[in-house]
Every structure is written in structure tokens, then in C-alpha cells.
Amino acid sequence: MSNGYRWPFGPVAIITPFNFPLEIPLLQLMGALYMGNKPVLKVDSKVSIVMEQMIRLLHECGLPAEDVDFINSDGITMNKLLLEANPKMTLFTGSSRVAEKLAADLQGRIKLEDAGFDWKILGPDVQEVDYISWVCDQDAYACSGQKCSAQSMLFMHKNWSSSGLLEKMKKLSERRKLEDLTIGPVLTVTTATMIEHMNNLLKIPGSKVLFGGEPLGNHSIPEIYGAIKPTAVFVPLVEILKSDNFELVTKEIFGPFQVVTEYSEDQLELVLEACERMNAHLTAAVVSNDKLFLQEVLGRSVNGTTYAGIRARTTGAPQNHWFGPAGDPRGAGIGTPEAIKLVWSCHREIIYDIGPLPKKWALPAAT
Amino acid sequence: MSNGYRWPFGPVAIITPFNFPLEIPLLQLMGALYMGNKPVLKVDSKVSIVMEQMIRLLHECGLPAEDVDFINSDGITMNKLLLEANPKMTLFTGSSRVAEKLAADLQGRIKLEDAGFDWKILGPDVQEVDYISWVCDQDAYACSGQKCSAQSMLFMHKNWSSSGLLEKMKKLSERRKLEDLTIGPVLTVTTATMIEHMNNLLKIPGSKVLFGGEPLGNHSIPEIYGAIKPTAVFVPLVEILKSDNFELVTKEIFGPFQVVTEYSEDQLELVLEACERMNAHLTAAVVSNDKLFLQEVLGRSVNGTTYAGIRARTTGAPQNHWFGPAGDPRGAGIGTPEAIKLVWSCHREIIYDIGPLPKKWALPAAT
Amino acid sequence: MSNGYRWPFGPVAIITPFNFPLEIPLLQLMGALYMGNKPVLKVDSKVSIVMEQMIRLLHECGLPAEDVDFINSDGITMNKLLLEANPKMTLFTGSSRVAEKLAADLQGRIKLEDAGFDWKILGPDVQEVDYISWVCDQDAYACSGQKCSAQSMLFMHKNWSSSGLLEKMKKLSERRKLEDLTIGPVLTVTTATMIEHMNNLLKIPGSKVLFGGEPLGNHSIPEIYGAIKPTAVFVPLVEILKSDNFELVTKEIFGPFQVVTEYSEDQLELVLEACERMNAHLTAAVVSNDKLFLQEVLGRSVNGTTYAGIRARTTGAPQNHWFGPAGDPRGAGIGTPEAIKLVWSCHREIIYDIGPLPKKWALPAAT
Amino acid sequence: MSNGYRWPFGPVAIITPFNFPLEIPLLQLMGALYMGNKPVLKVDSKVSIVMEQMIRLLHECGLPAEDVDFINSDGITMNKLLLEANPKMTLFTGSSRVAEKLAADLQGRIKLEDAGFDWKILGPDVQEVDYISWVCDQDAYACSGQKCSAQSMLFMHKNWSSSGLLEKMKKLSERRKLEDLTIGPVLTVTTATMIEHMNNLLKIPGSKVLFGGEPLGNHSIPEIYGAIKPTAVFVPLVEILKSDNFELVTKEIFGPFQVVTEYSEDQLELVLEACERMNAHLTAAVVSNDKLFLQEVLGRSVNGTTYAGIRARTTGAPQNHWFGPAGDPRGAGIGTPEAIKLVWSCHREIIYDIGPLPKKWALPAAT
Predict the structure, then answer these.
(1) Chain D contact set for B290 (CB, 8 A)
(2) Looking at domain D118-308, what is its CATH homologous superfamily?
(3) Marked catalytic residue, from B136, B148, B252, B262
(4) What single string gives the DSSP state of each residue in D282-347?
(5) Cβ of A355 and B311 within 8 Å?
(6) Where are chain A's structural domains?
(7) Model pLDDT for residues D215-229, shown as the tens digit of each residue
(8) Of the residues C113, C136, C262, C275, which is catalytic?
(9) Which of B255, B262, B277, C194 has its CA 20 to 30 A from that of C74?
(10) Mutate which of C82, C346, C360 to test chain D, going by most D C-beta atoms within 10 A?
């Protein structure tokens, strides 16, 4: 009788970023605990007060104090701690640069949720323009674009050109203002860096600013942060695919910034090629109710959490489903029972072989 | 409607060792192919002719030639190829030393099946001594101990002392001879290294050779290989646990070599501590039909493929179940549908959100 | 530790009809055997020679002779045998009339696959008219309509009126001829009964024969069988729903006979009401690639095996999936691992509670 | 793309008995609701006030009033209602006699949890006598034996004869008294009936009263109920198996009454034969930690919820697992997600076949 179990790793580490100070560390922490691990948790120190309070609440509710270690430190200290403590598993959510360093340092005992250059494709069936422009605005600019699932690139079928979609997106973006925090400071990219990136894009033939592209005014946001208007830059599809341009165009800007392009009926192959050449396959959306179109795009792309249908978005996760980059054996997941099991436990197989011995068993003769 | 899929990685690599020239690469290759990947396969060049022939057979049976790339090279060349080709996933079976290097080089895009210092515990209920001595002989010395699942350490309850078990194991080991290949050359450890390891063990107080411990005679095996009689060295349990000795005693010798020790009723804690302190949790066996004893040992150990019951062995895998080290997020699996899915594919979630829009939906007003 | 098992019933019976002399009894028999039961099999005696030969082949291939009992009898004898032998489970495939009698006789120890009045709905999106007319012809008239999954009623959206669909179906039906067995004898309904049924339908206001409706000529088929041309009768939707007509219109004719009707955009509610009021929810098809339409119809209907999409049919089962009427706890399934488990085994839960006793356990004091 | 769903039945009925006025109807009702059914609930009218209050509480908590119909009636009225309303599924918990009538009336659209003649086998390994005698007392006499899972027969290995087990059981039974309700009225069997049954058993050669066997004194329990002391009657194993005696000995008495017998090492076959010949395979217990013994008994018996191990009992269900008689396709389950799905929903398979058509498809030529 052979039984498969999921077994905890034991000592594990969790490192999470600034942008969701409660949701990401809490979901990961609880998943680790549910599977029976002993986690040490480090949240980006800019926001770690949130989880500190949460842990106090958990203690109040009965969590034994020795079940979780909470550390408040900079990254260098944490890196040193990881190398010395040698946890069996580390969950890292954050930038690709740090992720790759940690993966090497920890020799792969790691799961990652890193950057995503998340795309959305609008299919040939134009409908619900008001709704879709609103979802695009939310996907690209809510939280000032500082979600790993934020919409970074929009592929628009030519049928949408005359639908008024871009005008509506422009109008919605212009409603955003500092007063009500519908736009706000960018914590990891400066204004100058974003403007420079835009200017580099604008050197590509055919590129243009669709809207935004200017620093925010009338504010006291320090210069080490970024502060720009919600921005969309159009780049022609054929230019995007050129090897001199591709890396530049698909560079993730962790702020309110997206690239928009357009494709005709016979250019779907180019769109799919672009999606395939991107590296960080976090989320994606295919906005269409055309079943054959959906089938074609879904069957030839790989992004992890992929929304399909006329209501598709890039940023709905993770309140009700799996999350994490696809196509990478280090890719983490979050929220679902399956994700919790795969990230926070390993397989153990116990085979009961209790006999009896076969009735006629005898010691095999020597050869 | 949310659907979870397992999605292939695409370009993957498989690197396998000398000791199972057909079984390991073939199981891994077929698993990779079943899940839709495009593998490049490298088998240890000493034995790669076996899989070369197998692949020719697969081609004959209809495998498209472009589905698998087969490379015959040394490890340095393969390492270079991996760094340049950047496969999405690499499966490595082999030594821990190479495994750790590759894990760092590939920044963790790897699954491992590496060494195991596999233990067997004989419980308090003495029975079927003939059978169990024969299984011990097979587990420790079949294939000259060159299985990753070979029995490396035997913890024997004191009740077995007067059962004649060790004498029977000695007798069985002495039946092994070069003529019928029941003993043979060791490919990765020299005779001198094994004798030296034994001598180091014998410096520990209370240690002694139970049987074997001498080079094989009358043979033409080259000196770069190993050639010793099936060997068992007794080391007292309390000595094993001393920090000066532990690493030495639990060093894996990939040849016909095992350490034997004994424990009394009240020393089970020490046995479990020893198992816990070992690092490579591949396979294990708990030889007992005492349900409370089984429960205690299984509940407090972590090895991946763990046999339990009076017929338990360490080396039954992988013909009918999961395989791979436990407690390591890089741990691979082999053979079962679950293992194939976890090793050779990643999760992708597709959420259909096709509408209709809520009947009263209207563009939210600006704040 | 609690383990759930599927456990065989032991002695079981299988009763199958004439129309698939090999497929139905063989799939059911093998399912019963796989789960460890001891079946007695009765196939309709008109065709039982087929399974008799099959069982001889199975014996030749190694099936132990005592694993299956095969009985060749009429229904009355079989009924008597069931009442005396009292099998733990009986699988009956056949007419609803016999099914209901057996269900009462066996006090519910039965699973059924009985008649289906299978509907197909053509959605608003007209396309692939050649293909869909061909599928309709196959669904309604292949095997002379003697499949439990045969298309009995076609709901056609008004958009199809001018598509030429009905003309194409007529043309295809007229290609069928006795010479090549594309039409043939009906084994359980006489020509007179079918013609009488048609005439009853034609009394409904607005009804008309679309094609067929006449006896086949130039043949020697005995009068106890049926022999008519592939027939379609149009009945207006509002008439179908009248309580005086509904039972008549939805009476299953196990021959090459279907009812066709038409609905306008605002009559979908009536179509869904009609589907809901039918009793035998075997198979169904929703021919459309309109995602919102599919969602609406699938979400509000219950048929067991329901095809959806522009290539949908009613008669594809059971080569690759579950089969059986939905909405009935006696409904059987066929072919899939899940169906085999549910039909041919019951649940058994074994809970291991081996101790130890809590350390401080003492006999509770008397109150 | 083929998706399997569990689909609710729609209108369903639930009929539950007196002995668990809250637990059984509530678990069944919630299961039916979770799967989306519309239940009508009838609880035995002697105790229906309990669920009436519970439903008022559910309404208070937000359950829409139209989600559940609650009926307070006698069985004849309910039977009539079922025949007229024709629910798609009925869950009946209660006596076998009514169960069989309903199963025929409803032509098998029913799931049953009926009587159990539940056995316990004590294996050869004698241990924890205090604990096991206490569990036996609880299993047989708690709630005055009015659980469907109550221990009705105890098979005791000879090794237990000198253990003092029976004496301890006697002593525990004698602690039970009306004052603290550790014994109480029996609602469906009169004192006279139970005494008569005992006297019939005592006519079997070798039978004797172990303890109890007398009416309770000093009480005002009406004569339509039963009132006897906790009773155990010993009957020799070989007598039990005689065809003249078997039906009598295994008749379920729904009160504080059990049969005890003894077996020797070589009589295990007879014990297993007795268990196999019983009809109502509800629960069972195998009290032993001997793995080979457990394997033998579990592998050759069929009861639904079977406890194994030295702490095994017959009456632990259903707080943490599946429940219901095994070996009967009408057998219900309770409490687990699997049970809820199997009892309260049917399978529906939706196959999306949306195309496109094969590029070279053309209408097949006429033959």
C-alpha cells in the first residue's frame, strides 16, 4: 500500500516587497504555516510596520509566538542571514535582479514571484468600449502601475481604431489626480528615469505619446521617488519586433506607464511572436468573446494567470486563484490550495510492505 | 470559469549518470516528452551508447527525429551548452557536488536527484531473519552498492543482536563473487579511497569491521576504479552523533560499503536525531510490523521514498512509485503521473470572464 | 489516519439492448470487471451471438472462465433470475418502460441508461451550413436513428431560415438508401406506428412534413420491423409547449424520425422551458460559437452529455467521455475512469486509530 | 475540451428519524443546499421541533425562506407527497423496512442510510483492557443503543477470555442509571419485544446472559417504549452460523442489546463468514494493532465505515468522515465533500467543440 503525502520543508524564509505590505506577506505566511513550516519573514522595511501589527494581531488570536520569526532589516543583512541559516526553502517576491542573485546564492532552493511585463490583446470583436477602456485604465494605472500584474503593453486589433477606445482611455487617465491618490508616487523608479525611458522609445520611427508623458506638478514628492502622469506611448508593431528595439520596448517600468501598439488581421503571428519573446510570463489578458480567436491566442501563449473573454483584465489576481510566473520551475504560486501545497511542501511516499512473506519463500541459492 | 492547466516548459535539458544507463534517462526523457517539452539529453559518456541505441529504436517506432536532441560530451562542454542555451528547466541526476554547482550556474532552474545516505531501521519486533538479512544484502551490495537508493546505514534494535542477523548478512556477502558479477568494479570511487574511509571510521572508539574490508583479489580491474569486498563497519551510536564524527560517518561511499550500528529501547531518540541530521533524504526503510513503532518513526522522519513494514527495503524504487530526495524544493520525482507533472510542467491558470456586463454597469464617476 | 476506498459490489448483473451489440455490453462488462465485480451478462437475444463470440475471445486471451456468467434468455426469464439471485447492483441499458419496472422490482439497486429525447439548438450565429446540415443528418438518421443519443428535436434560430439548412438536410436524407444500409430496418417500432405518430403530429396547427414521411419501398423487411424514409416534421414552438401536445411531440421514436421547430430572438425562454420539461436528459447539442449564448443555454439546461460549439453534435459519445442521463440518481455512466468507479463500486472508509492512548487517560468516573 | 461538472438534482426530499434530531437532518439539509438543490425536509414528528427551531435560526442568519420546505407529518402523508411531487432524489435515513418500501415506490430515486448490525472483532493481541471495555460499553449502550452505528455483535478472540474484559464491561454497564440518563427509554422497541428476543436467543445451546437481561425498575416510561438494563447475551460461534439461527442472532434490536461470542485462532474463517452473511454493512471495528491480522480482516470484509487499530470503535462517525452502508448502490454518505457530491449531485459533461473545421473538410460524397 503506497501513500503519497505532502510534507513541510521545516525552516523556510519569506521575503516580500513594498507594494502590497499586507496581502503578499500574509498570504505567503499563512500558506507556509498551514503546511507546517517554521518561517522567518522579512517585509520591505519601508512598510514592515504593517505586518508587524498583523503578527501582533495573530498572536492575540492565538498564534504561538515561536511559530513565526519576524525580521526587520535591509536586504544585505537578510542575504547574509539566508546564507548562514540555510533555510530549506525561500519564497522571494520582488525584482528580477534580486531574484536572480538570490537564486544563485541559495543554489535554487527558492520560489520566485518576480516582475511581469504583462500584455493585453484586444481581439477583432469590438464591443463594450466604455467598459474595456475603464478596465485598461485600472490595469495600467491603479496603484500608479505598481502591481506586478499591471498592464505593460496593449496590443489593439485595428478594428478598435475607430471605436474611440484610446480617446476614452486618455480621458480616464486625465481624471487621475494626486488629491484623491488615483495617481501617486512611484517608489522604485524616479521621474527622470521614466521620462528618459519614454524619450528612448520616442526615437523609434513611428512612435508617439498617446497621453501623459509629463511629470506631475504641484507636489512635494521627494526626488528619489517618481511622479509622472499616467502615460501611454504608441510604438509600431514591426518596430517592436526588431532586435535593436525589443529589449527596450519590453523593459518593465514599475510605474504608471504602458506601451500601446496596433495589429491588423494578418499580423496576429507578430503579436504572438512578441508575447513569446518576453521573459516574465506573469499575467495576461485576451479581450475577446470570439471563441476561435481565444483558442488561437491561448493555445500559443504561456502566461501564468491569463484572463480571457470580453471582461478580461491583467490585475484581478490573486483574490480568487493561482498566481505566479509561468514557464519557470522556480515560479511560485499563491492563494489556492494547489499553490500552497506546491510552494510550501514536498512529496513524500510511504510504502507499507508488511507481508506476509510468500508461503514458499526460501533464501535464493547462491549462483 | 477558472481552469488550471499543466503547461510544458518548452526547451529542457536532461543529464544522467552512469549507474542506470537505460532506466534513468529513459524514464526522464519520456516524462519530459509526455508533457510536451523539447529535451536535450546527455548521458554519462561511459555508457551513452545504451541510450543512443534506445533513441534509434524510438525513431524506428515513430518518434520524430526533431523531438529529442542527444548530445555526447564531457561535463564541461555540457555545462557551457547549458549556460548558452539557457533551457527553461534542467533535470540533473548525479553527484551532490555537481548538482550544487549546476543549481548555482542555472540560478535554480533545475530539478535534482542526487546522492542519498539511505538508512534502514530495524524495529524491536524480531522476525523473518532469513528474509531480512537477504534484503539487507541486496539493498547494500546489489550492483556493488552503486544505486542512489543503496542502504548506507543500518540501525539495528538490540533485540536483533542474538537473532543471527549479522552472521547471516556476513554469509550472504561472502557468496558474492566477481565471476557472476554479484560483486564488481566501482566506477567513481577507488579501492584506496574506500579503504582509507574505512580506516578513518575504525579510529572511532568502539568501531570494528563486521565483514569485508579488503580489496578484491584476482582481477584486472584498472586502478581508477574501485574493487573491494562487500563491507560493513560497526560504529557505536553515541560516537556517530558526536559532531567530530557525524560528517565522516555519514559520508556517502558510492560502492559496496555500509555502516552498522545498534540502539537500545531508550535510544530511539538518538536514532531519529541521526536521521534528521543527514542531508540527503532520498530513501529509507523502517523494518517492523509494530504499528506504534512505525507511527513514531514515520512521523518524525522525512525521507522521500520510505518503505515501512517487515518487508521494507531501501532500493525498491522506482519501478512502481515516486522517487527523489525529500525536503528540497529542487527535488525531482520519477515514474508516477504526479512526478511527471510536477517535474516537467508548470501551472497555468486561464480564467474565462466573458460577461455579460452587469445590467446596470456604468462608468464609475470620477472621485 | 482515514483512507477512502472504492470497493466492488461483488455479484452484479448487466442487461444490454440490441442496438450496440458489442460496444455497450463490452464497455459495461469491462468496467464491472476492472472494479472487481462478478457480473452476469444478458444481451438482447437478437444480437447476443456477438458478445458470445467476444467472451470466447476474452477466454482465449486469458480471462478466467468463472469471472463472467453469460446468459441467453428472454426478458421474463432474466427478470425472474434477478429477483432470485438478488445481485448487489444491476446495470440496465434499454427502454424507459422496462427500466422503471426493474427499478421497482430491484428496489433501486440499479443504474440506468435509458431513452433520451435528445435536443439540438442552433444559435443565432449562422455559419458552416454544409457541415452543420451534415452533422444533423448523421445525428438524426445514422443507424436509422437507433441510438439512444440520436437527435430527436431540432430547435432552429430564425436566422437559419434563409440559410438553406433545411434544404440541405432534405437533400442529405434523400441520399440514404437501403442498398448501402444508410437507411435500414427499425427493430422496435413498426412502420405503422411511426406513420401513425407522424399523422398525430400533423393534426397540430401549423405542423407539416419537411421531408420523408413515407414507408420505404422495394424491400423484404418483415412487418414486425419498421421501414420508413428519414423523416422530419415541423411543429410550431408555441404548439409544442401546449400541455395537450407536449407529451405527444416529445415521445421518443426509436427510428429515423425527428421534430423540427423554429424560434425567434425573444423565444429562447420557450426553448429552454421545453428542454426543461423533457424527462430523459441524455445528450444535447448547442450549435453556436457565441459565448454569451452558450453560457445562457448551458447554464439553464441539464442534459448529461452536452456538446457546445459550432461543431456540436448529439451522438459523439461514448468514445471519449462520460455518458448517461443527467438529473437521475440512478443514472449510469460509461467509459471514463470516474464513470466506472461510480457505477461499479461503492465507497468504503477505513480509519486507522492505532493509538497510543493519551498518556493521562483513565477510566472516566461514574456520574 | 471536455469538462465534467457535478450538477444539482433540483427538487429533492430528505426524511430523517428520531434518534439524532439535529445532526442527521442538518448535515443532510446543508449538503443538499450546498450542491444547489431545493429540498423538502421531514423529520420524525416526535422530534421535529428541534429542526423547526434550527430552520428559524437559519432564516435569522440569512437563509432565504423559499430555499427549504419543511413539512411536519406522519409517514403515510409523506409517502403520498413523495409519490405526487416526484422529487428527483430522496434521502431516507431510518429503518430497513420503510427504506425498502420507499425504494420500490420511488423506483430507486433514493439514497438510504438504514439499519446496521454493526460488528466489532477483538484481535489476538490483548492490551489496554480498561480502555477497550470502556469503548465497548460506549459503542453498545450510549444513547441506550439507539445509534445506527451501535455495536450489535462482539467477536472476541479467546486470548481475551482471561483478560477480565467481560467483567469490566459488566461493571461499566451496571454504572448506567436512569437518573443521569446513561440509560433511558427505547423509542421503537418495547421491553416485551426485547425480553422475548433475548429468550429466543437463550434457547440456542450454549447461550447465556452475560449481564443485564432485566427490565428497568422504578420508572414511569410508558409501555409503548422499551426500558431494559444494558444487556449482553453470549451465543457460541458455531451456533450463530447455523442457518436456523443466523437470522435470529443478527436481527437488529435498536436498543441497549448486544450479542457476544468468542473465536479461537483457527475460527477466524467462521468470523469472516458471519460478517459476510450479514446484510447491513454500516460500520465495523477491528480492535488490534497486529498488522497482518488487520490486513486479513479488512481485506475480506466490506462494512462502510470501518475502524481499525487498538482504539477502534463502531460509533465514532460521522463527525469526521464518510458514513453510510457499503455494498449497496443506494447507500448514502454524509459529512465529507465527496459524500455531499455523490449524494446530492449528478454528473454532467460539457464538451466544447468549437472548431475550426478541418481545412480540407468537404461534404462526404454519397456512397
Answers:
(1) 289
(2) Aldehyde Dehydrogenase; Chain A, domain 2 (3.40.309.10)
(3) B148
(4) -EEEEE--BHHHHHHHHHT---SEEEESTT--S--TTTTS--S-SS-TTB---SSHHHHHHHHEEE
(5) yes
(6) 2-114+325-351, 120-308
(7) 999 999 999 999 999
(8) C113
(9) C194
(10) C346
